[in-house]
Amino acid sequence: MNHQPLPLTIGDRPFVWGQRTYLMAVLNVTPDSFSDGGDFNTLETAVTHGKALINAGADILDIGGQSTRPGALEVSLTEELNRVVPVVRSLREDPAFATCPISIDTWRSPVAKAAIEAGADIVNDVTGGTRDPEMFSVVAALGVPFVLMHSRGTPETMQKLTNYRDLIGDITEFFTVQIQKATAAGIAPHQIILDPGIGFAKTSEQNLDLIRNLSQFQKLGYPLLVGPSRKSFIGHLLNQPDPKQRVWGTAAACCAAIATGSTDILRIHDVAEMHDVCRVADAIYRPKT
Protein backbone atom coordinates (compact mmCIF):
# COMPACT_ATOMS: atom_id res chain seq x y z
CA MET A 1 0.00 0.00 0.00
CA ASN A 2 1.14 3.52 -0.69
CA HIS A 3 -0.45 5.21 2.30
CA GLN A 4 0.48 4.33 5.85
CA PRO A 5 -1.85 6.00 8.34
CA LEU A 6 -0.78 5.75 11.96
CA PRO A 7 -1.76 2.52 13.73
CA LEU A 8 -4.85 2.81 15.90
CA THR A 9 -5.65 1.02 19.15
CA ILE A 10 -9.38 0.37 19.51
CA GLY A 11 -10.27 -0.89 22.96
CA ASP A 12 -7.11 -2.83 23.68
CA ARG A 13 -6.62 -4.14 20.14
CA PRO A 14 -4.05 -2.68 17.75
CA PHE A 15 -5.08 -2.02 14.15
CA VAL A 16 -2.02 -1.71 11.91
CA TRP A 17 -3.19 -0.46 8.54
CA GLY A 18 -1.83 -2.13 5.42
CA GLN A 19 -0.89 -5.46 6.98
CA ARG A 20 -4.24 -7.20 6.49
CA THR A 21 -7.92 -6.55 5.87
CA TYR A 22 -9.99 -6.11 9.03
CA LEU A 23 -13.63 -7.20 9.11
CA MET A 24 -16.41 -5.05 10.55
CA ALA A 25 -19.47 -7.27 11.06
CA VAL A 26 -22.97 -5.82 10.68
CA LEU A 27 -25.46 -6.31 13.51
CA ASN A 28 -28.69 -4.52 12.68
CA VAL A 29 -31.04 -4.35 15.66
CA THR A 30 -33.90 -3.23 13.44
CA PRO A 31 -37.14 -4.60 11.98
CA ASP A 32 -36.56 -3.09 8.53
CA SER A 33 -32.90 -3.22 7.44
CA PHE A 34 -32.53 -4.22 3.80
CA SER A 35 -31.09 -7.73 4.24
CA ASP A 36 -31.60 -8.82 7.83
CA GLY A 37 -34.43 -6.63 9.12
CA GLY A 38 -36.32 -8.39 11.88
CA ASP A 39 -33.78 -11.18 12.25
CA PHE A 40 -32.06 -9.80 15.33
CA ASN A 41 -34.37 -7.14 16.74
CA THR A 42 -34.75 -8.65 20.20
CA LEU A 43 -32.06 -8.39 22.85
CA GLU A 44 -31.55 -12.16 23.02
CA THR A 45 -31.28 -12.75 19.27
CA ALA A 46 -29.06 -9.69 18.79
CA VAL A 47 -26.60 -10.68 21.52
CA THR A 48 -26.50 -14.30 20.33
CA HIS A 49 -25.83 -13.24 16.74
CA GLY A 50 -23.24 -10.69 17.84
CA LYS A 51 -21.31 -13.39 19.69
CA ALA A 52 -21.54 -15.69 16.64
CA LEU A 53 -20.11 -12.94 14.41
CA ILE A 54 -17.18 -12.44 16.78
CA ASN A 55 -16.53 -16.18 16.94
CA ALA A 56 -16.58 -16.32 13.13
CA GLY A 57 -13.69 -13.86 12.92
CA ALA A 58 -15.10 -10.33 13.12
CA ASP A 59 -12.54 -7.72 14.19
CA ILE A 60 -15.20 -5.08 14.93
CA LEU A 61 -18.93 -5.45 15.63
CA ASP A 62 -21.04 -2.62 14.14
CA ILE A 63 -24.39 -2.24 15.91
CA GLY A 64 -27.15 -0.13 14.37
CA GLY A 65 -30.69 0.66 15.49
CA GLN A 66 -31.79 2.81 12.55
CA SER A 67 -32.12 1.32 9.07
CA THR A 68 -30.31 3.29 6.38
CA ARG A 69 -31.64 1.29 3.43
CA PRO A 70 -33.08 3.40 0.59
CA GLY A 71 -36.56 4.56 1.55
CA ALA A 72 -36.21 3.74 5.26
CA LEU A 73 -38.20 5.92 7.63
CA GLU A 74 -36.52 7.61 10.57
CA VAL A 75 -37.12 6.20 14.06
CA SER A 76 -37.33 8.30 17.21
CA LEU A 77 -34.29 8.98 19.37
CA THR A 78 -35.85 7.01 22.22
CA GLU A 79 -36.52 4.00 20.00
CA GLU A 80 -32.96 3.99 18.64
CA LEU A 81 -31.52 4.20 22.16
CA ASN A 82 -33.76 1.38 23.37
CA ARG A 83 -32.64 -0.82 20.49
CA VAL A 84 -28.87 -0.45 20.71
CA VAL A 85 -27.77 0.40 24.25
CA PRO A 86 -28.95 -2.85 25.90
CA VAL A 87 -27.18 -4.89 23.20
CA VAL A 88 -23.89 -3.04 23.70
CA ARG A 89 -24.16 -3.40 27.47
CA SER A 90 -25.02 -7.12 27.32
CA LEU A 91 -22.09 -7.92 25.03
CA ARG A 92 -19.71 -5.98 27.25
CA GLU A 93 -20.91 -7.83 30.36
CA ASP A 94 -19.85 -11.21 28.92
CA PRO A 95 -16.15 -11.73 29.73
CA ALA A 96 -15.69 -13.91 26.64
CA PHE A 97 -16.61 -10.99 24.36
CA ALA A 98 -15.49 -8.05 26.45
CA THR A 99 -12.49 -7.13 24.27
CA CYS A 100 -13.95 -7.13 20.74
CA PRO A 101 -14.24 -3.52 19.54
CA ILE A 102 -17.85 -2.40 19.15
CA SER A 103 -18.92 0.32 16.75
CA ILE A 104 -22.18 2.23 17.08
CA ASP A 105 -23.78 2.94 13.69
CA THR A 106 -25.66 6.21 14.24
CA TRP A 107 -25.83 9.81 13.06
CA ARG A 108 -27.28 11.01 16.38
CA SER A 109 -24.80 12.30 18.95
CA PRO A 110 -26.95 11.32 21.98
CA VAL A 111 -26.99 7.71 20.71
CA ALA A 112 -23.25 7.81 20.12
CA LYS A 113 -22.64 9.12 23.64
CA ALA A 114 -24.97 6.59 25.31
CA ALA A 115 -23.51 3.66 23.36
CA ILE A 116 -19.90 4.63 24.13
CA GLU A 117 -20.81 4.99 27.81
CA ALA A 118 -22.38 1.51 27.66
CA GLY A 119 -19.13 0.07 26.31
CA ALA A 120 -18.87 0.78 22.58
CA ASP A 121 -15.53 1.95 21.16
CA ILE A 122 -16.18 3.59 17.76
CA VAL A 123 -18.76 5.94 16.25
CA ASN A 124 -19.79 5.13 12.67
CA ASP A 125 -21.79 8.01 11.16
CA VAL A 126 -23.29 7.31 7.73
CA THR A 127 -23.86 11.05 7.24
CA GLY A 128 -20.21 11.94 7.86
CA GLY A 129 -21.21 14.41 10.55
CA THR A 130 -23.66 16.36 8.37
CA ARG A 131 -26.99 15.52 10.07
CA ASP A 132 -26.21 16.28 13.72
CA PRO A 133 -24.20 19.48 14.29
CA GLU A 134 -23.15 18.21 17.73
CA MET A 135 -21.64 14.94 16.50
CA PHE A 136 -18.06 16.11 16.00
CA SER A 137 -17.80 17.83 19.38
CA VAL A 138 -19.37 14.85 21.17
CA VAL A 139 -17.00 12.37 19.51
CA ALA A 140 -14.06 14.63 20.30
CA ALA A 141 -15.07 14.73 23.96
CA LEU A 142 -15.47 10.95 24.03
CA GLY A 143 -12.00 10.53 22.48
CA VAL A 144 -12.99 7.57 20.28
CA PRO A 145 -12.39 6.71 16.60
CA PHE A 146 -14.86 8.11 14.09
CA VAL A 147 -15.93 6.59 10.77
CA LEU A 148 -16.77 9.44 8.40
CA MET A 149 -18.91 8.19 5.52
CA HIS A 150 -19.93 9.96 2.33
CA SER A 151 -23.65 10.16 1.62
CA ARG A 152 -26.25 12.63 0.43
CA GLY A 153 -29.70 13.39 1.74
CA THR A 154 -31.56 10.88 3.90
CA PRO A 155 -32.48 7.23 3.27
CA GLU A 156 -35.80 8.54 1.93
CA THR A 157 -34.16 10.86 -0.62
CA MET A 158 -30.63 9.63 -1.32
CA GLN A 159 -31.35 7.60 -4.45
CA LYS A 160 -32.59 10.78 -6.13
CA LEU A 161 -29.29 12.54 -5.40
CA THR A 162 -26.93 10.66 -7.70
CA ASN A 163 -25.82 13.47 -10.03
CA TYR A 164 -22.11 14.18 -9.63
CA ARG A 165 -19.84 16.56 -11.47
CA ASP A 166 -16.97 14.14 -10.80
CA LEU A 167 -17.78 11.15 -8.58
CA ILE A 168 -14.33 10.59 -7.06
CA GLY A 169 -13.50 14.28 -6.99
CA ASP A 170 -16.79 15.22 -5.32
CA ILE A 171 -16.40 12.53 -2.64
CA THR A 172 -12.80 13.62 -2.04
CA GLU A 173 -13.96 17.22 -1.64
CA PHE A 174 -16.65 16.09 0.82
CA PHE A 175 -14.06 14.18 2.83
CA THR A 176 -11.70 17.15 2.87
CA VAL A 177 -14.36 19.52 4.20
CA GLN A 178 -15.67 17.10 6.84
CA ILE A 179 -12.18 16.12 8.01
CA GLN A 180 -11.42 19.82 8.55
CA LYS A 181 -14.60 20.21 10.59
CA ALA A 182 -13.87 17.06 12.60
CA THR A 183 -10.31 18.03 13.46
CA ALA A 184 -11.33 21.61 14.23
CA ALA A 185 -13.80 20.18 16.76
CA GLY A 186 -10.97 18.23 18.40
CA ILE A 187 -11.13 14.75 16.83
CA ALA A 188 -7.57 13.44 16.51
CA PRO A 189 -6.63 12.88 12.84
CA HIS A 190 -5.31 9.36 13.51
CA GLN A 191 -8.77 8.41 14.83
CA ILE A 192 -10.60 9.27 11.60
CA ILE A 193 -11.56 6.46 9.20
CA LEU A 194 -13.08 7.24 5.79
CA ASP A 195 -15.92 5.34 4.08
CA PRO A 196 -16.87 6.34 0.50
CA GLY A 197 -20.43 5.11 1.07
CA ILE A 198 -21.11 2.40 -1.49
CA GLY A 199 -24.85 2.28 -2.11
CA PHE A 200 -25.54 5.69 -0.57
CA ALA A 201 -26.68 8.19 -3.20
CA LYS A 202 -24.90 6.19 -5.92
CA THR A 203 -26.22 4.30 -8.92
CA SER A 204 -25.16 0.72 -9.61
CA GLU A 205 -22.61 1.89 -12.19
CA GLN A 206 -21.30 4.56 -9.83
CA ASN A 207 -20.74 1.90 -7.16
CA LEU A 208 -18.65 -0.13 -9.60
CA ASP A 209 -16.71 2.97 -10.58
CA LEU A 210 -16.13 3.75 -6.92
CA ILE A 211 -14.65 0.30 -6.23
CA ARG A 212 -12.41 0.57 -9.30
CA ASN A 213 -11.05 3.88 -8.04
CA LEU A 214 -10.70 3.32 -4.30
CA SER A 215 -6.95 3.93 -4.55
CA GLN A 216 -7.69 7.57 -5.39
CA PHE A 217 -8.55 8.17 -1.73
CA GLN A 218 -5.10 7.08 -0.55
CA LYS A 219 -3.73 10.58 -1.02
CA LEU A 220 -5.91 11.76 1.87
CA GLY A 221 -3.82 9.59 4.20
CA TYR A 222 -6.57 7.96 6.26
CA PRO A 223 -7.61 4.31 6.66
CA LEU A 224 -10.42 3.32 4.30
CA LEU A 225 -13.53 1.34 5.20
CA VAL A 226 -15.57 -0.15 2.32
CA GLY A 227 -19.05 -1.65 2.63
CA PRO A 228 -20.18 -3.59 -0.45
CA SER A 229 -21.92 -6.38 1.44
CA ARG A 230 -25.17 -7.65 -0.13
CA LYS A 231 -25.79 -4.23 -1.71
CA SER A 232 -28.31 -3.68 -4.48
CA PHE A 233 -25.66 -3.15 -7.19
CA ILE A 234 -24.67 -6.79 -6.66
CA GLY A 235 -28.30 -7.85 -6.89
CA HIS A 236 -28.63 -5.85 -10.10
CA LEU A 237 -25.62 -7.57 -11.66
CA LEU A 238 -26.75 -11.05 -10.61
CA ASN A 239 -30.48 -10.55 -11.06
CA GLN A 240 -30.77 -11.60 -7.43
CA PRO A 241 -33.51 -9.80 -5.47
CA ASP A 242 -32.76 -11.63 -2.20
CA PRO A 243 -29.88 -9.85 -0.39
CA LYS A 244 -29.00 -13.01 1.55
CA GLN A 245 -28.24 -14.77 -1.75
CA ARG A 246 -25.59 -12.21 -2.74
CA VAL A 247 -22.76 -13.79 -0.72
CA TRP A 248 -20.49 -14.67 -3.64
CA GLY A 249 -21.16 -11.41 -5.43
CA THR A 250 -20.12 -9.74 -2.18
CA ALA A 251 -16.98 -11.92 -2.16
CA ALA A 252 -16.02 -10.65 -5.62
CA ALA A 253 -16.54 -7.04 -4.57
CA CYS A 254 -14.43 -7.61 -1.43
CA CYS A 255 -11.61 -9.12 -3.50
CA ALA A 256 -11.72 -6.19 -5.89
CA ALA A 257 -11.58 -3.72 -3.01
CA ILE A 258 -8.54 -5.49 -1.54
CA ALA A 259 -6.87 -5.68 -4.96
CA THR A 260 -6.85 -1.88 -5.20
CA GLY A 261 -4.36 -1.87 -2.33
CA SER A 262 -6.28 0.78 -0.45
CA THR A 263 -8.93 -0.99 1.63
CA ASP A 264 -8.27 -1.42 5.33
CA ILE A 265 -11.68 -2.50 6.68
CA LEU A 266 -14.56 -4.30 4.97
CA ARG A 267 -18.02 -3.94 6.49
CA ILE A 268 -19.79 -7.24 5.86
CA HIS A 269 -22.67 -9.50 6.94
CA ASP A 270 -21.31 -12.96 6.11
CA VAL A 271 -18.29 -13.10 8.38
CA ALA A 272 -17.20 -16.74 8.07
CA GLU A 273 -17.28 -16.64 4.25
CA MET A 274 -15.60 -13.23 3.92
CA HIS A 275 -12.98 -14.18 6.52
CA ASP A 276 -11.76 -16.95 4.21
CA VAL A 277 -12.10 -14.79 1.10
CA CYS A 278 -10.03 -12.01 2.66
CA ARG A 279 -7.32 -14.31 3.97
CA VAL A 280 -6.68 -15.57 0.45
CA ALA A 281 -7.00 -12.14 -1.16
CA ASP A 282 -4.63 -10.67 1.43
CA ALA A 283 -2.06 -13.37 0.69
CA ILE A 284 -2.22 -12.48 -3.01
CA TYR A 285 -2.44 -8.71 -2.87
CA ARG A 286 -0.55 -7.94 0.35
CA PRO A 287 2.64 -9.95 -0.06
CA LYS A 288 4.88 -10.02 3.00
CA THR A 289 7.94 -7.82 2.71
UniProtKB/TrEMBL annotation:
<comment type="pathway">
    <text>Cofactor biosynthesis; tetrahydrofolate biosynthesis; 7,8-dihydrofolate from 2-amino-4-hydroxy-6-hydroxymethyl-7,8-dihydropteridine diphosphate and 4-aminobenzoate: step 1/2.</text>
</comment>
<dbReference type="Pfam" id="PF00809">
    <property type="entry name" value="Pterin_bind"/>
</dbReference>
<keyword id="KW-0289">Folate biosynthesis</keyword>
<dbReference type="InterPro" id="IPR006390">
    <property type="entry name" value="DHP_synth_dom"/>
</dbReference>
<protein>
    <recommendedName>
        <fullName>Dihydropteroate synthase</fullName>
        <ecNumber>2.5.1.15</ecNumber>
    </recommendedName>
</protein>
<keyword id="KW-0808">Transferase</keyword>
<dbReference type="InterPro" id="IPR011005">
    <property type="entry name" value="Dihydropteroate_synth-like_sf"/>
</dbReference>
<comment type="function">
    <text>Catalyzes the condensation of para-aminobenzoate (pABA) with 6-hydroxymethyl-7,8-dihydropterin diphosphate (DHPt-PP) to form 7,8-dihydropteroate (H2Pte), the immediate precursor of folate derivatives.</text>
</comment>
<comment type="similarity">
    <text>Belongs to the DHPS family.</text>
</comment>
<dbReference type="GO" id="GO:0004156">
    <property type="term" value="F:dihydropteroate synthase activity"/>
</dbReference>
<keyword id="KW-0479">Metal-binding</keyword>
<dbReference type="InterPro" id="IPR000489">
    <property type="entry name" value="Pterin-binding_dom"/>
</dbReference>
<feature type="domain" description="Pterin-binding">
    <location>
        <begin position="21"/>
        <end position="279"/>
    </location>
</feature>
<keyword id="KW-0460">Magnesium</keyword>
<dbReference type="InterPro" id="IPR045031">
    <property type="entry name" value="DHP_synth-like"/>
</dbReference>
